[in-house]
């Protein structure tokens, strides 16, 4: 999908600029109709798809996600959810490239265990090296470790995606200091991935200076996914505007809003 590179304050990943800084997942919805409605309500341009769990053509006899969110309207971001080794992750994304006619932009995640879904960083680094060498534009789910994030950027990943808290936990941003360190050093987009629970979490991520937020459970698991998708859209926009505007410094004393000089006695 082609995008206007002149969009003011768009999110640029691998040379392409997207209007929205909110990226959304495609799992856990009641059906494909709800998936489409929530995706549209979110305003997202990029929708991530778990190749091992979602049909995008692997099974020609089953409904395809691409019928609900076609590549002509959205950028499909295949991911390796469910992979626990570099070998499996690389194979999964090579399959996705074939299914999506040579698509290069992918999301890499290599998990460490089924309980925490925390990233296995040695395997993640190994897979990233292989995929970058194979011509992929790799966005990568990682721990909130500034050193690991820097290593992934040096390998050639086009975006780093540190977790805010455990996948699907809804616990929000547990370590804003580490995120700030990653943001300060990064020369590629930093996109919070995992742990967002509600709109205020998304706004905080953007206020910290993150370039974007990716979420799935927070929208799909809400009582009203469509309304939550709209809330997340607004939260990301508000957080970004607040970051660009620059917050006032925190003080330990009051500071009157109205000036004292020239007041009427």
Short characterization:
The protein has about 260 residues and is an alpha/beta fold.
Polypeptide structure, described:
With 265 residues, the protein is of the alpha/beta class. The protein contains 9 helices and 10 strands. A 5-stranded parallel β-sheet has the order 5-4-3-10-9. Strands 6-7-8 form a 3-stranded parallel β-sheet, covered by helices on one side. Strands 1-2 form a two-stranded antiparallel ribbon. The chain starts with 10 loop residues before the first strand and ends in a 20-residue tail after the last helix.
Describe this protein with a few key phrases.
about 260 residues; alpha/beta; five-stranded parallel beta sheet; three-stranded parallel beta sheet; 9 helices; 10 strands; about 35% helix; globular; disordered N terminus
| Tally of helical segments | 9
Order of helices and strands: EEEHEHEHEHEHEHEHEHH
The total strand number stands at 10
Helix proportion: 25-40%
Oligomeric description of these chains: single chain
Regions with little confidence, pLDDT below 50 for 5+ residues: 1-7
Using the CA coordinates, give the radius of gyration.
19 Å
Distance between the termini: 64 Å
Nearest-integer average pLDDT: 91
Task: Trace the largest sheet across and list its strands.
Answer: 5-4-3-10-9
């Amino acid at each position: 999908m082609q995008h206007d590179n002149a969009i003011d304050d768009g999110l640029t990943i691998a040379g392409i600029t997207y209007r929205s800084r909110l990226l959304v997942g495609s799992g856990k919805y009641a059906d494909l109709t709800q998936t489409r409605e929530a995706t549209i309500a979110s305003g997202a341009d990029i929708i991530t798809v778990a190749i091992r769990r979602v049909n995008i053509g692997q099974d020609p006899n089953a409904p395809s996600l691409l019928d609900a969110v076609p590549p002509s309207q959205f950028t499909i971001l295949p991911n390796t959810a469910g992979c626990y080794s570099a070998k499996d992750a690389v194979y999964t994304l090579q399959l996705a490239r074939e299914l999506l006619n040579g698509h290069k932009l992918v999301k890499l995640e290599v998990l460490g265990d089924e309980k925490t879904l925390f990233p296995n960083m040695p395997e993640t680094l190994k897979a990233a090296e292989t995929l970058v060498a194979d011509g992929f534009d790799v966005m990568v789910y990682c721990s909130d470790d500034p050193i690991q994030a820097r290593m992934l950027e040096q390998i050639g990943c086009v975006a780093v995606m540190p977790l805010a808290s455990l996948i699907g936990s809804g616990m929000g941003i547990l370590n804003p200091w580490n995120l700030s360190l990653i943001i300060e050093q990064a020369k590629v987009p930093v996109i919070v991935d995992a742990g967002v629970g509600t709109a205020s979490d998304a706004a905080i991520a953007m206020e910290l200076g993150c370039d974007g937020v990716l979420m799935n459970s927070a929208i799909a698991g809400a009582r009203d996914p469509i309304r939550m998708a709209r809330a997340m859209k607004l939260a990301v926009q508000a957080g970004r505007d607040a970051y660009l505007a620059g917050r006032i410094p925190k003080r330990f004393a009051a500071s009157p809003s109205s000036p004292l000089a020239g007041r009427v006695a």
